[in-house]
Write a structure and sequence with these properties.
By secondary structure, the protein is of the alpha+beta class. It has five helices and ten strands; from the N terminus they run βαββββαβααβββαβ.
Length: about 170
Protein backbone atom coordinates (compact mmCIF):
# COMPACT_ATOMS: atom_id res chain seq x y z
CA UNK A 1 0.00 0.00 0.00
CA UNK A 2 1.30 3.44 -0.89
CA UNK A 3 0.69 6.69 0.90
CA UNK A 4 1.10 10.13 -0.61
CA UNK A 5 3.70 12.41 0.96
CA UNK A 6 3.53 16.20 0.93
CA UNK A 7 6.26 17.40 -1.38
CA UNK A 8 7.34 20.21 0.96
CA UNK A 9 7.85 17.72 3.81
CA UNK A 10 9.78 15.11 1.81
CA UNK A 11 13.47 14.44 2.54
CA UNK A 12 15.49 12.12 0.33
CA UNK A 13 19.12 11.37 -0.54
CA UNK A 14 18.59 11.35 -4.30
CA UNK A 15 22.28 11.37 -5.20
CA UNK A 16 23.14 8.13 -3.42
CA UNK A 17 19.85 6.40 -4.25
CA UNK A 18 20.35 7.02 -7.98
CA UNK A 19 24.06 6.27 -8.01
CA UNK A 20 23.93 3.12 -5.90
CA UNK A 21 20.40 1.72 -6.11
CA UNK A 22 19.19 3.06 -9.47
CA UNK A 23 15.54 3.64 -10.41
CA UNK A 24 13.06 2.86 -13.16
CA UNK A 25 11.67 5.58 -15.40
CA UNK A 26 8.33 4.40 -16.76
CA UNK A 27 5.96 5.93 -19.29
CA UNK A 28 2.76 4.96 -21.06
CA UNK A 29 2.10 5.84 -24.69
CA UNK A 30 -1.26 7.22 -25.70
CA UNK A 31 -2.09 3.75 -27.14
CA UNK A 32 -1.69 2.25 -23.63
CA UNK A 33 1.68 0.49 -24.13
CA UNK A 34 4.06 0.77 -21.15
CA UNK A 35 7.83 0.58 -21.05
CA UNK A 36 10.61 1.42 -18.61
CA UNK A 37 14.35 1.74 -18.32
CA UNK A 38 16.81 1.64 -15.47
CA UNK A 39 18.56 4.90 -14.65
CA UNK A 40 21.50 5.82 -12.46
CA UNK A 41 21.62 9.41 -13.72
CA UNK A 42 19.09 12.08 -12.93
CA UNK A 43 18.61 15.37 -11.19
CA UNK A 44 16.24 16.33 -8.42
CA UNK A 45 15.53 19.81 -7.13
CA UNK A 46 13.60 22.97 -7.79
CA UNK A 47 13.20 24.89 -11.06
CA UNK A 48 10.76 27.67 -11.93
CA UNK A 49 9.33 27.41 -8.43
CA UNK A 50 8.40 23.75 -8.93
CA UNK A 51 9.82 20.52 -7.48
CA UNK A 52 11.38 18.65 -10.39
CA UNK A 53 13.04 15.44 -11.47
CA UNK A 54 15.11 15.44 -14.64
CA UNK A 55 15.48 12.19 -16.55
CA UNK A 56 18.20 11.88 -19.19
CA UNK A 57 17.37 9.31 -21.88
CA UNK A 58 19.19 8.53 -25.12
CA UNK A 59 17.06 8.55 -28.27
CA UNK A 60 18.24 5.00 -29.05
CA UNK A 61 16.48 3.67 -25.98
CA UNK A 62 13.01 2.20 -26.59
CA UNK A 63 11.59 4.09 -23.60
CA UNK A 64 12.54 7.39 -25.27
CA UNK A 65 9.60 7.17 -27.67
CA UNK A 66 7.27 6.49 -24.72
CA UNK A 67 8.53 9.60 -22.91
CA UNK A 68 8.05 11.67 -26.05
CA UNK A 69 4.48 10.37 -26.50
CA UNK A 70 3.23 11.10 -22.98
CA UNK A 71 2.65 14.04 -20.65
CA UNK A 72 3.61 12.13 -17.47
CA UNK A 73 6.25 9.66 -16.36
CA UNK A 74 7.16 7.95 -13.09
CA UNK A 75 10.50 7.51 -11.36
CA UNK A 76 10.43 4.47 -9.09
CA UNK A 77 13.01 3.56 -6.46
CA UNK A 78 13.17 0.02 -5.09
CA UNK A 79 14.70 -1.68 -2.08
CA UNK A 80 18.02 -3.51 -2.55
CA UNK A 81 16.43 -6.92 -3.15
CA UNK A 82 15.20 -5.65 -6.55
CA UNK A 83 18.68 -4.69 -7.82
CA UNK A 84 18.97 -7.81 -10.03
CA UNK A 85 15.62 -7.04 -11.64
CA UNK A 86 16.66 -3.44 -12.33
CA UNK A 87 19.93 -4.68 -13.80
CA UNK A 88 18.04 -7.02 -16.14
CA UNK A 89 15.64 -4.26 -17.17
CA UNK A 90 18.57 -1.93 -17.85
CA UNK A 91 20.37 -4.46 -20.04
CA UNK A 92 17.39 -5.65 -22.08
CA UNK A 93 15.09 -3.81 -24.44
CA UNK A 94 11.33 -3.69 -24.25
CA UNK A 95 11.40 -3.92 -28.06
CA UNK A 96 12.23 -7.61 -27.71
CA UNK A 97 10.21 -8.71 -24.70
CA UNK A 98 7.87 -7.60 -21.95
CA UNK A 99 10.66 -7.15 -19.41
CA UNK A 100 8.29 -5.74 -16.78
CA UNK A 101 6.24 -8.93 -16.83
CA UNK A 102 9.33 -11.14 -17.08
CA UNK A 103 10.75 -9.54 -13.91
CA UNK A 104 7.45 -10.09 -12.09
CA UNK A 105 6.75 -6.42 -11.42
CA UNK A 106 3.12 -5.42 -10.92
CA UNK A 107 2.14 -2.23 -12.71
CA UNK A 108 -0.24 0.18 -11.04
CA UNK A 109 -1.84 1.97 -13.94
CA UNK A 110 -2.33 5.44 -12.48
CA UNK A 111 -4.38 7.83 -14.58
CA UNK A 112 -1.21 9.92 -15.06
CA UNK A 113 1.80 7.56 -15.12
CA UNK A 114 2.23 3.86 -14.45
CA UNK A 115 4.34 2.79 -11.47
CA UNK A 116 4.99 -0.41 -9.51
CA UNK A 117 3.39 -2.05 -6.53
CA UNK A 118 6.90 -3.15 -5.46
CA UNK A 119 8.49 0.33 -5.53
CA UNK A 120 9.53 1.78 -2.19
CA UNK A 121 9.28 5.36 -3.46
CA UNK A 122 7.68 6.85 -6.57
CA UNK A 123 7.68 10.29 -8.15
CA UNK A 124 4.85 11.03 -10.56
CA UNK A 125 6.20 13.69 -12.92
CA UNK A 126 4.45 15.96 -15.41
CA UNK A 127 6.69 16.86 -18.34
CA UNK A 128 7.30 20.61 -18.45
CA UNK A 129 10.37 20.88 -20.70
CA UNK A 130 12.20 18.67 -23.21
CA UNK A 131 15.44 19.31 -25.09
CA UNK A 132 18.59 17.50 -26.22
CA UNK A 133 22.18 17.95 -25.12
CA UNK A 134 24.07 19.47 -28.03
CA UNK A 135 27.70 18.77 -28.93
CA UNK A 136 28.49 22.46 -29.40
CA UNK A 137 27.24 23.34 -25.91
CA UNK A 138 29.68 21.07 -24.03
CA UNK A 139 32.26 23.24 -22.26
CA UNK A 140 34.13 20.13 -21.11
CA UNK A 141 34.70 18.47 -24.50
CA UNK A 142 36.09 15.34 -22.80
CA UNK A 143 32.63 14.51 -21.47
CA UNK A 144 31.21 14.60 -24.99
CA UNK A 145 34.11 12.51 -26.35
CA UNK A 146 33.87 9.86 -23.61
CA UNK A 147 30.12 9.55 -23.22
CA UNK A 148 28.91 10.10 -26.78
CA UNK A 149 31.59 10.20 -29.48
CA UNK A 150 33.61 7.21 -28.26
CA UNK A 151 30.43 5.16 -27.79
CA UNK A 152 28.97 6.27 -31.14
CA UNK A 153 25.86 7.39 -29.26
CA UNK A 154 23.44 10.24 -29.70
CA UNK A 155 23.19 12.88 -26.99
CA UNK A 156 20.66 12.32 -24.21
CA UNK A 157 17.28 14.01 -24.29
CA UNK A 158 16.54 16.00 -21.15
CA UNK A 159 13.04 15.40 -19.77
CA UNK A 160 12.24 17.88 -17.00
CA UNK A 161 9.21 16.81 -15.03
CA UNK A 162 7.38 18.62 -12.29
CA UNK A 163 6.93 16.22 -9.39
CA UNK A 164 3.17 16.32 -8.90
CA UNK A 165 2.98 13.43 -6.45
CA UNK A 166 5.29 11.40 -4.21
CA UNK A 167 4.16 7.94 -3.17
CA UNK A 168 5.95 5.96 -0.47
CA UNK A 169 5.62 2.41 0.72
CA UNK A 170 3.81 2.49 4.05
CA UNK A 171 6.02 1.67 7.03
Amino acid sequence: MKKEIKIDEFKFDAYNRLKNDWALVTAKKKNGDINCLTISWGAYGQLWGKPIFIAFVRPERFTHEFLVDTDYYSVCFFNKEYQDKLLYIGRNSGRNEDKIKKMGLNVINDNKAPYYEESALTYICKKIYVDDFKKENFIDKDIYKEIYEKAGAKCHTIFIGEIVSILKEED
